[in-house]
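Sample 3 of the quickstart, ligand iron/sulfur cluster:
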Amino acid sequence: MNQKLNNINEMKCQFLDENATYDFLKFLKGRSKVFAPHRKGEASYIYDEVSDVKDVVLQYPRTIQPLKKYFLPPRETLLSFNIDENNFTESEINVEPRIFFGIHAYEMEGVMRLDYTFEQGQPESNYLTRREQSTFIGISYEPDEYHFSKSLGIDIDSVDGFSLYFKKTDNGYYVYEIDAAGQQLMKEFGKGKRVDIPVTKEEPEFTNKIKYHYNRLPQIFEHVYDSKVWEEVAERCVGCGTCNLLCPTCYCFDVRDEVEINATEGKRERFWDGCMLNPFAEVAGNENFREKLSSRTRHRLYRKFKYITNKSGELHCVGCGRCSKYCPADISITKIINNLIDDYADRQQKQVI
Amino acid sequence: MENVVYEKKDLYYPVMSDILSVETLTAMEKRFQIAMPENQPLNHKPGQFVEVSLFGFGEAPISICSSPTRSPNFELTVRATGRLTDKMHMLEAGSRLGIRGPFGHGFDVDVFKGKDVLFVAGGIGLAPLKSLIDYTLDKREDFNKVKIIYGTKNPAEILFPKAIEEWRQKDDVEFDMTVDRADKSWKGNVGVITTIIPPLQLDVENTVVAVCGPPVMYRFVLMALKAKRIPDDNIYISLERRMKCGVGKCGHCQINDVYVCQDGPVFHYPHVKSLEEAI
Amino acid sequence: MSTDLNINVHHVTRVEGHGNIVVDMKKGNLNKAQLEIVEPPRFFEAMLKGRNFHEVAIITSRICGICSLGHQMTSLKATEAALGLEVSEQTEILRKILIHGSTFQSNILHALFLATPDFFKVGSVFPLVKTNKAVVEAALRLKRLANDIGDVISGRAVHPISCVPGGFTKLPSEDDLRTLRDKIVTQGLPDAELAIDALASVAHEIPPFERETEYISVYSDKEYALYDGDICSSDTGLYPVEKYLEVTNEFVVDHSSSKHARFNRDSYMVGALARFNNSYALLKPKAKDVAAKLGLEAPNYNPYMNTVAQVVEVVHCVEDTLEMIDYLLDTGIKQEKPNQEPTRYGRGIATTEVPRGILFHDYTYNRQGMIDKANCIIPTGQNLANIDDDMKKLVPEIIAEGKDAITRKLEMLVRAYDPCISCSVHMLDVEFIE
Amino acid sequence: MSGQKPKVAFFDFTGCEGCQLNKLNFENELLDLLELVDIVEFREAMDGKADYYDIAFIEGGISTPQCIERIHDIRRRCGVMVALGQCAVSGGINAMKNLHPSEWVQEAVYGEDKYLFPSIPAQPVSAIVNVDYEVRGCPMSAPEYLHVFKSLILGRKPEIKDYAVCVECKLKENECVLDKGMFCLGPITRAGCEAICPSNGQYCTGCRGPVSNINRDGAVDMLKKHGYSTEEALKRMKMFNTNEIDKEIKWGR
Ligand SMILES: Cc1cc2nc3c(=O)[nH]c(=O)nc-3n(C[C@H](O)[C@H](O)[C@H](O)COP(=O)(O)OP(=O)(O)OC[C@H]3O[C@@H](n4cnc5c(N)ncnc54)[C@H](O)[C@@H]3O)c2cc1C
Ligand code: SF4
Ligand code: SF4
Ligand code: SF4
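Result:
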């Protein structure tokens, strides 16, 4: 699996205190649309367009929907049609430059995994057009009990994909210029204070971990297809699909035609869908090829750790912890993986004996 | 990101095409002859499919049942089972529908060349196979023996009786069929399709088999072929799954790590044999 | 002139729920003139037994979809009284706006869509779409506006969502309120005027019948009482809500799956006309103007005028809603969570004016916060005896007009009460048998 | 149906009429809808009766012997039958009374007069006659009803969702009410309401019935985590769905 290129511990940076950071947001807002984390309800966060920089939350555990909502919207019109005239109009996808501020490393990796999906085979212009003209500015975070991206090779300070990276320090941020675009932004903003020697700072520990090194996971998945772990998970899973919908690398969709009240005009729309849902693998004749929750859960995990990985060379889980955090049945993906590892190790041992 | 090339024209826009003729085959099936704009050829391979779309009624994958050897136009055989297909049955010659495709991985005809070919078709599975059968017959000299076996629920559901009559007449084609339940007019075999496999005289090493039928059929046909000692390596099957895009994105047709719309619908049997969710 | 009359209207149309009108007159003797309620009983009070206080209003709201909001409010108030839950001023104001929205929507639905076709002598509102399109459209917009109030403040107009014991699970934003206000001013008021003019033009079709009866409603000296107050009888004055059983005196009659009620006389009337008669002085000025314009003066003893009183109330509700929205916008919406920590367990009784009249819910909770005993007394049930008494007076008065006209006027009479039969089918003071 | 406008009728059985009202609450679309169909019977809004209907919408459940006769009669005279709202689809909230012996319920309500008003267990319309399509919810979901209506006018099968409310809730990016410490039946309840309750900060009460192929044990387990006993969990799941939760359900795993 890829070795990440940038190591910020060897890079010089600038310092912005908390107020200057908000000034920087204002500066960004003056240039283009800016999207950043906001509070939603009592205990949740979402990405949203910045209208007042004061509403931006800099430190947050994770948002409900991942960043994919901007490139693969939860609901999108593919085309509009007129039944009487039997013709359709293409839907315009206009993108203007967009800056995504306050993005965590795993989230950025999630976007890059999704890129793979929409680029390989027959590239899809809806997604790729929306992906154009996007600038990402990263930020560090405190991992909670659900994050485990480090176990998958994604450090808090992994900066691939970002133009700038904000690393939290006492009363402000160290700002790293990752690419030329980032450099340009900082130059124009002009209020950063140069920090002359590279700063080294310990990354906080992740409490949620996978037992084995991520390089070994595809190999584990070679051997656990018939593990009893799947049945154990299925006893508790209620098949709600939350884990699919909120996963930054899940992209399955459904397409439906809906007509207006005049029964003449209408739209062909696509919606996020998920392989955990009962009707997902149904075919004509009411046969369902993944009727059991155990086979659905297995399919979901195999798509994260094996099926796509075999082709792309990368794991398609980025360790954001959304599937576990939002699962109403408290099913934890790291527990599943660690149980699979135990099961595998057990069986290996029995074979040796 | 920067170096990916993609066409602005979206994958999901259908090409509006004309229905040239509609033929009622059975109570449930109709055959449509379709022309792409300006009679452009579809350039398909036997076994491939198109996404048919009718606005307000959605899209569905339908196999191309005519051989690319026959004309620039192509044919679809459609069973009325739901939203799109019911509406399609109400269309007449002169109507237009949307076509995307051809999609998928058809039959690799080169593998069949010089070999004995056995076609096993169940129910509407004859439609996708017909494109390959016609192709084989049009290039007859490329192939060795040709055998077709076909099973339907009852005599009223027999597709393409005219073509069947032709196959029966031909000296260089062996044809046999059976029905699950006979009626008074029926004089042929009665029983499921696996009952007419054992009597076949096959050069097992040198026979390539193409199978297509309803999901339930595969397990039994494959058992019967195994009993005849046909190597798995010589078997090709065409699978069906729900699809929402046809281009490997929507995820619906995925069987373990294969996509039916991209890696199939025609699969080399050893490729899917070990996939638990396939058959 | 025949002195025999036999009328049997099976399932009266354009009313909520199922009822039949039966009149039997032999040789000038009126043996029977009654509204038979044949709506299937639904046994709500039994279903409530053992339910957690969070669920109670969700269930009771389903007693009636038309007055779901009123049931929900009354239920919440009874639960809060039983569990000692205080609500904020903001919650009360939002609830009052909701009650207004519900009265507004229900009165419009009844007055303009169900009753008005009688005055235009057509069988439904549908033909009026062709002949009086502008008015129908205005009426539809008014109804939408009334529903918007429910949607904005409680998430849904039928079986509201966000009002729960102790407050709201989601509060409307100030922007939402501002939009609503603008819509009421720019669209609601002119539409209401249009509808009132249309009604005024057919007001002479209202039959001139009178029968003085006892009028019972909620009353408060602070405002035209809908959300809360004491019980008021036009005969004997005010009673605290705890005395509701002495006022309603429900009894089972064999021709109705809904129970009847009586207090100081053989029957009493509840609803818009009762409220109008008891609380006229507290109406907003514009509502009084409209009453004058439509020829309605307090007290009025013509039950057919109930429809007109409903329209007057619409104007009152709109005006009062605007004032309350302005107040909320001035003070600003405070983000607050529902107060759901019970301070006691026991009995709680509440009353509210729902569109069809006075409604009572009475619950007793056990220490687990579950219902032990429940009783709901619904306005239509209280009106049934009064309807029968009206019919008994009316039929002999109009006997000369012939069966068809009599039937029509009886149907109109029943409709004027805007009976909500589905919710009237319930039971009274239940002793749950363990 | 070609050429002529489809004849549409509405019938109400045992229920609260909230669905009828919800149907009238499409004020913006009502006049357009009227253009597309002929409404031939609708007791709540008009006089008159008809002999045949292309589409019969049924609101309310079956709860008396008379209901049974009437529904048979309508079935004989209609083309497509659509059950509107949870009372019609599953018996709805009325079916809660099925949890108690009927004698007890009747006595509780009418005391000594209990025999005056016969009542049978509350049942869905589909328990008596064949129902073609269902619009679930208490009240029936307005967007789904419109979808079914438009689909039938187009002459196509409606697409009825069979996945959880959570899906629609997540598509809307609502704050999950579980995160606020409430419980929620969204994970096992059929979508189609656009997650209207969680969108308003309230938990999903399960008013649209369970998705097919539910994991009932898993669901009880899930509610236990939120502090409900098995008994209380089942009671909550049954509020609108006594009949559906009680019948033999195919286990999800
Ligand atoms: C590669 C391929 C080739 C095919 N070739 C042909 C062909 O040549 N001819 C042909 O007739 N068919 C063919 N099919 C099958 C055809 O695509 C399906 O029957 C398709 O569903 C018809 O679409 P529809 O809109 O008419 O039916 P739908 O309305 O989709 O209904 C079809 C059936 O599926 C059920 N159903 C509907 N929606 C769902 C859902 N969301 N989940 C589960 N079940 C549902 C319905 O009840 C019905 O039984 C092919 C399929 C594939 C994958
Ligand atoms: S979120 Fe949890 S309960 Fe829902 S489908 Fe995923 S694993 Fe199952
Ligand atoms: S599988 Fe779970 S942890 Fe991994 S990326 Fe998806 S949602 Fe995040
Ligand atoms: S609020 Fe309820 S419906 Fe919405 S996601 Fe959470 S559990 Fe699912």
